[in-house]
Amino acid sequence: MRVRPDIAMGEALRVENRKNKVTVIALIGGIAVILIIVFGTLWIGQSAREDSQEVARTVSLLYLDELAGRREQVVADNLRGRIGDLNTALELMSVEDLSDVEHLQAYQARMKKLFKLERFAFVDTEGQIYTSTGIQSDIDLYRFDRHSITGPEISIKNLNTHDKKVIIATPIDHISFNGGELLVCFMEIDMKEMLQGVSMHSQNSDTTFSNIYTSDGVALTDMILGGLAEEDNLLDALKNCDYENDYSYEKVRKDFAEHVSGEASFTYKGIRETLSYIPVEGTDWMLTYLIRESVISQKISSISRGILLRSIVQSVLMVVVLTAVFMFVIAQNRKNALLRIEKETADAENRVKQQELDERIQMQEKIEQQSHALSEALAVAEDANKAKTAFLSNMSHEIRTPMNAIIGLDNIALNDPDMPPKTREYLEKIGVSAEHLLSLINDILDMSRIESGRMVLKNEEFSFQQLLEAINTMFSGQCADKGLDYQCHVSGQLSDYYIGDNMKLRQILINILGNAVKFTPEGGSVELRVRSVNAFEGHTTLEFVIEDSGIGISKEFLPHIFDTFAQEDSSSTGKYGSSGLGMAITKSFVEMMNGNIGVESEKDKGTVFTVTVTLMDSGRKTSEAEADEIDLQKISVLIIDDDPLACDHAKLVLGKAGISAEIATSGEEAVEKVNLRHARMEPYQLILVDWKMPGMDGVETTRRIRGIVGDQSAIIILTAYRWDDILEEAVNAGVDSFLSKPIFAANVIEEFRSALNRKNLTDSRKKAAADLSGKRVLLAEDVEINSDIMIMVLEMRDMKVDLAKNGKEAVEMFGASSQGYYSAVLMDMRMPEMDGLEATRRIRSMDREDAKKIPVIALTANAFDEDVQRSLQAGLNAHLSKPVQPEDLFATLEKLL
To answer: CA 776 to CA 822: how far, in whole Å?
Structure first.
């Protein structure tokens, strides 16, 4: 059947029309897709830029609030410290200082020098100002009212000049002087000196600025608005600003007037800025932090422009690709145009969906990786913290073990009566150096306590002459061996004795002198100069100058010399040996002694260290006879009170008398401290306990302490109440005496002496030592040299020793012995096969009477408190840390046997 030509032609035209329509639709659809991509890219880029700017402003406000709050706290603390200095200066004033104008001026001069003041003055009822240089009448220059002042007031002198002064004034009791009455004491400090160390100057960048203003907008430091403002007053400058939404000049002015914190965003001279302000406590000042948003916005805009440019490039590439695809489709078979267009559209949609899916999968993988990394980081941090504790414990054990051999052999050798004098001198020097090395090991292991601020100083009387003699003995020998010239010069009047931390001062000098000897080549010189530079109110400031002609320190490294682990270069570490901790520890100790340390050096010419420390004076002289049988400097005291202020006061009172004390703020803590000291065989000789404490009161605390120490310690109840109602109960609990608060050193000493007489503790010290001859002990020690030393030490008292090389062997030997065969067990803690703790538990668990009663003494390099607690929990009677001193071991055996 043939088709008519006109019908065929019509059908062909209809097909062609359908094809043309499909092509047009495809083109329109392609153009629409292109427009959506282009405009969508522009819209997304613009939105991203606006969102980034908003986030930047929010983060800036948070950042400013944090910085302003921290800096305000620093300024407030500095002002409180100055008020504290003023009160301290008034406490240091004596009756003699008020005897006449000359004495008052001398006292004021001392206070100016001590607290670095420009003026330290008093004001009388007539408005006359007494200064260290004379009487002045310029009272009108000061803003405080001498008649109405009721507490510390802070004001500014010369407010509208560049020479601003901070005035801190406080009222004083009406003190008669020079025919009148003194009403007010004030100090005058230069504003720059006042804010020194507070970092109020602008940052190195042009982004953030810090300043302090009065409530009227007068600048106390730096420039107004980071140097942009032409006005001399902040509030005047802020009048000319254009403010963002929710901010206004009226609100800022009101906040300044009412002394409340806040922030404001504005534009000044075309530059967007954000200002955060916070009041400084105790003043009418406002501390401000300014961030220049324009700088940040420019950086954000550059990032946004980069994002937008990349998006446009991507859109252009997509347009080119789509155009090529459309032209290729049209050039192909027009009959299949519609199908191909539909297929391409479907493929494009699939690609988009697949791309989105891939992006989601990648994002999920990144989130999982980050979560896993955070979990691993947390685990690593926790492991590191545990590893640090384990490392300190292991280091204590590993270092103390050879130290035990060194000190033990040295003590045994010194007991040889036929020892030549020269050899004895060498051994004594070895002993001194070994003891010092042990103290250095303890300080290094306690480095974490120094960093956290928990390291405390001892206040004990010590011989300054013996300290210098030991230092000179140590370093004169070292210098002679190395071919160096060592000199020690003492000038001025120095006392025979001072009160302070002898070991810390010793370590300061050894650290610096040791470096001087180490870094000075043969033929050079090392010099130590000592003098007294100041004395006031029972305190003396000593200056130590250590000068060498060594290799010196470069100017670049000099500012970092006191940094932890700081070393000038790796080559010097290999050549001279250094841990990088010595100078950091030295600086910490000097600052704890209210001192300063400075250094001057020139490469290849030498170094000069200047150290000043403040020590308490001691009235004791070398030639004085010791009349009192109680050595106050050797009394160990524990103060128990739930009020920290009461504890600090008691410690201060006793410290002035030369008695060192420890503190516990609860009965439970006190019992734990007593238990630890008792295990170390170092019981407290005197315990002062408050009666009224929450939880465990003073009587119950005494009862529990007596259960640990028996009659060893004298216990005195401190109370502000009448103790008649609890007298019988307290005495039955073991209380020796009572004292009323507040305490005085003389009363404490007298009550302690009375308690000693009643308890007959003084006579017990003079009793002959218990006879250890013939006693047999079981020694568990796996290190051969330590066991040999311990056997020789015990045989010095004619004791018999059986050796077990590990804990398992010790348990077997004790189990195989007859009842009462061994008088004591000396147990090392770390041994192969079985450690000392497990061995002690097994001995205590044996079904025999002597297993429960035999004294077991720990001889171990594990010296931490937690190690002592583990020993007590395992059933040991005492815990002696290596290196063990023979006299401590014998005293422990005499007490337990």
So the answer is: 5
